[in-house]
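Q: Sequence in, structure out?
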Amino acid sequence: VVAVVPAKGVGEDDLLRLTASLERSSEHPLGVAIVRAAQARSLSLSAATEFDSPIGRGVLGQVEGRAVAVGSAAFLADQGVSAASLTEASEVHRRQGATVVFVALDGALAGLIAIADPVKESAGPAITALHAAGLRILMLTGDNEITAQAVAARLGIDEVRADVSPQDKARIVADLRKAGRVVAMAGDGPALASADVGIAMGAGADVAIESAAVTLLNGDLSGVMRAVGLSRAVMGNIRQNLVFAFAYNAAGVPLAAGLLYPVFGLLLSPAIAALAMSLSSVSVVGNALRLRGLKL
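A: Exactly. Output:
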């Protein structure tokens, strides 16, 4: 949490305390950050009741007998609360790359909380490497357009789709595939199953890890490039093995069948044929084992 901005007549600590009390029931990273900020100020948190968390939108509930809603401006608008009076303040933080959540108390705007999501040091080099490998990078995020563009500009991301729900992400991935793109999706949610290759983060949900083709155990984006490098090396190795196998059979089968005997007088004994077949398998397996020495 980098800023707590209360509306007129609301105390900053009260805003943070009530929001954190509600978010304590949430597993969302933004909620975790808010709870951590309240604990850092030694604020006493209360139990939340009637907790609800519409997917990808926000959270609702009762804290100390008060109705608390936390989420985007659109989410609060659905609750009959306008966030217009804090639009300018929110955009100041978004331009700095922070995520902004609005808070409503008893049906009235109570303030906003800005949360900065630091870009991992490895993200920039990872995206540069992916670009060098010929990949196009698209960022799909439920965050605000201004925040998303600020982060994308820092990292050199090719395209941004912001304010999208998990279901929207799955639809966008499906549309890209229908357009003929081969799509690898790194992250979480139903979009992983919609992609040609789903890449889950090791710290993500078990269901995402189960449905993904690749799991990055430490959640480091550089692992995506390592996965691409390993995949390309494996496919190259498979093609080499097909050439080895085809060459052995192209030479051995006509010889073993006696097709060359009338012209050249050449025959292949069963013992030599068996040896040649074994050598074919050994060369293919030996070539595959070279992958163990691959430097990623």
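The mean pLDDT is 89.
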